[in-house]
Amino acid sequence: MSRVYNFSAGPSMLPEAVLSRAAAEMLDYGGSGQSVMEMSHRSAVFQSVVDRTEALLRELMGIPEDYAVLFLQGGASTQFAMVPLNLAAGSGRADYVLTGQWAKKAASEGKKLLGEENVHIAGSSADKTFSYIPAEESLSFSPGADYVHICLNNTIYGTLYPYIPDTGDTPLVADISSMILSQPLPVSRFGLLYAGAQKNMGPAGLTVVIGKKALLEASRPGTPTMLQYKTHLDAGSMYNTPPCYAIYICMLVLEWLKSDIGGLGEMEKLNREKAELLYSFLDQSRLFKGTVEKGSRSLMNIPFVTGDKELDGKFVKEAEKAGFVNLKGHRTVGGMRASIYNAMPVEGVRALIEFMKGFEVQNG
Ligand SMILES: *Cc1c(COP(=O)(O)O)cnc(C)c1O
Asked: Does the CA dihedral 65-141-133-97 come out positive or negative?
């Protein structure tokens, strides 16, 4: 068996140790005589999976007691609607910072649900095709907004906030889909965090919401039951059938992070090492160059170009033949993008750089 190095932005690589354990436990989980895929979500054995997953997530991320953890479905995209439906229950106004496609999608869902006039754009980096994060001083928050929404790591453009905006008493909401578990995060600075699991914590189908309990109680009139945070808070994420198998794989990923890696501080060191290897290669390359301003570079998603579309295409094709897959940039930006999430080993990044060096010699 030969496995490829998968640089996909999501769904993405999972640690091999996790896949092996899932395979070994497929027919009989913990002596239950069944797969986690087959068991009742109301059974004691499955409840122990959910409890363990939540406990591990709380421990690894240092989630405070007054925050809830919800295991939902619908992807990060459903959160674009749930956030305004639940959190804009006060003034009905919200601020959004536009730093890429996902941030824009979140804002347009906000406009749809709250009305165009009630959504204030507090900052944007659209002027330079989202190649940077706006300086904190340039953000203009509106007084009395119910929340401020940001996208902390911009998967498509490859930017990461180098700071956490200070929004005073206004709750800060962040889409952390493509950076959750990649480094420690001061959870208490946020009112609510959400992430689709398929980038850095497990398979598609699971969405994790971490929110201050007090913020999850209210919702706007007419909000469907399934879209109310309170429904899931009160039912311990068991109002209806949760994404059982995805939660179980997430538990295995969290066990791996804790036991094999040693926590998020150690994970960050490895992620910095990988990103620095690739960025320093790009900074001195005659053929390839990164597209993001230095102070805003993501540790997870690294876009780069040759400056020649045909050559970009040739690179992606040849890389794939050599076992480096999914390096094509997002359809809206072109070029290449290497997503190097937690599960990408340092050797994968080193091997990619060697391959890029060879391509440069032949095509530079
Ligand atoms: C992938 C991604 C999304 C969309 O996630 P779905 O789970 O497919 O809805 C939203 N935001 C960010 C930052 C992403 O990376």
From this structure: positive
Structure token digits, residue 52: 């363990």
Q: Which of 199, 274, 312, 328 is catalytic?
A: 199
Pocket residues for ligand 1 (CB within 6 Å)?
A: 10, 75-77, 102, 151, 155, 175, 177-178, 196, 199
Catalytic-residue membership of 230: no
Give the model confidence (pLDDT) of 283-321 as tens digits: 999 999 999 999 999 999 999 999 999 999 999 999 999
In this structure, which residue's CA is closest to atom 14 in ligand 1? 177
Range of the domain at 285: 263-363
Residues 254, 310, single domain; the answer is no
CA 188 – CA 135 distance, rounded (Å): 22
CATH number at residue 301: 3.90.1150.10
User: How buried is residue 168: exposed, middle or buried, by Cβ count under 10 Å (0-12/13-18/19+)?
Assistant: exposed
CA dist., res. 297 & res. 293, Å (int): 7
Closest-CA residue, ligand 1 atom 7, reads 75
Please say which residue of 230, 260, 290 terminates a domain: 260
Q: What pTM did the predictor assign?
A: 0.98
Domain count of the fold of the chain: 2
The whole-angstrom separation of Cα 64 and Cα 186 is 10
Catalytic (active site) residue 199: yes
